[in-house]
């Protein structure tokens, strides 16, 4: 399960350059991998066999660069991606230019830190997707879109009833997706990776069954809990490097040992 945020020439901590994204997709294609849809992945968890070399490619938040730089490369290499939208960030207006479509100047696609600065300043319009762009990405079947809540807020860090706030977030997100896309699924990605047992119950009561985390050290196998879906963050690195990580994650003997060691190592770090 691959987790991305940005594909942008800006590079940086949780950004992947278009050159590295191309190399990663080329590695997947050249080694016989295919990408799953959320429905196919849900069927895999429920016990329907998926092809041995399968990945789910996910993007969090819904940044403009997903359209400008990632979408054209996904189309070129024949891969499908899942984008979790922070619905209050998504704006109206015409679709902007994207890579590979002539001489039009491409819009700015800043790095993650700058995107967060603009969101905090109430200026998501320049860095997030528009509904017209989402429709273009959906139309060819390359991308599908699901909930990442409405505002991406850590309500556990705010005053008030966090569970009631989260319930409202999910209701607003579902209404927004239904209004603009004509449908809403049972797939939800937690904002900033945070969740607790209360949030899981709130999400399930709202109609969400498949809950995506930022936890990397576990396996999504048939019979696994759909309320705790593991993903690992893809770095700004070569396709071969990502390929090694995928092979570790898929190995029936290496993966459990690797995940146990990483969880122990993380526990030691926090204990210290």
UniProtKB/TrEMBL annotation:
Q: Which domain of life is it from?
A: Bacteria
Entries under InterPro entries matching the protein? Glyco_hydro/deAcase_b/a-brl (IPR011330), NODB_dom (IPR002509), Polysacch_Deacetylase (IPR051398)
What GO biological process terms are annotated to this protein in UniProt? carbohydrate metabolic process
- Tell me yes or no: is Signal among this UniProt entry's keywords: yes
- Keywords, in A-Z order: Signal
User: Which residue range or ranges hold the NodB homology domain?
Assistant: 53-272
Instruction: State any single GO MF term.
Output: hydrolase activity, acting on carbon-nitrogen (but not peptide) bonds
SUPFAM superfamilies from the entry? Glycoside hydrolase/deacetylase
Report the PANTHER family cross-referenced here: PTHR34216, XYLANASE_CHITIN DEACETYLASE
Task: Write the protein's name.
Answer: Polysaccharide deacetylase
């Amino acid at each position: 399960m691959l987790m991305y945020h940005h594909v942008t020439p800006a590079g940086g901590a949780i950004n992947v350059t278009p050159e590295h994204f191309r190399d990663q997709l080329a590695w997947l294609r050249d080694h016989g991998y295919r990408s799953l849809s959320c429905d196919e992945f849900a069927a895999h968890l429920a016990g329907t066999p998926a092809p041995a070399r399968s990945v789910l490619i996910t993007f969090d938040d819904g940044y403009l660069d997903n359209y400008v730089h990632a979408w054209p490369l996904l189309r070129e290499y024949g891969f499908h991606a899942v984008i979790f939208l922070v619905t209050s960030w998504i704006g109206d207006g015409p679709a902007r230019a994207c890579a590979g479509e002539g001489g039009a100047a491409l819009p700015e696609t800043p790095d993650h830190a700058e995107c967060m600065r603009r969101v905090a300043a109430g200026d998501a319009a320049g860095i997030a997707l528009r509904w017209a762009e989402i429709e273009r990405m959906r139309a060819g079947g390359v991308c599908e879109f699901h909930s990442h809540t409405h505002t991406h807020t850590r309500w556990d860090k705010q005053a008030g009833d966090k569970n009631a706030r989260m319930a409202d977030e999910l209701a607003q997100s579902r209404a927004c997706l239904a209004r603009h896309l004509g449908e809403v699924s049972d797939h939800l990605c937690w904002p900033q990776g945070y969740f607790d047992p209360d949030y899981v119950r709130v999400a399930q009561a709202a109609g969400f069954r498949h809950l995506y985390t930022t936890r990397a050290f576990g396996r999504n196998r048939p019979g696994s809990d759909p309320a705790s879906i593991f993903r690992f963050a893809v770095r700004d690195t070569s396709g071969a490097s990502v390929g090694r990580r995928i092979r570790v994650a898929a190995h029936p003997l290496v993966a459990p040992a690797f995940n146990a060691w990483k969880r122990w190592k993380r526990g030691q770090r926090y204990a210290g």
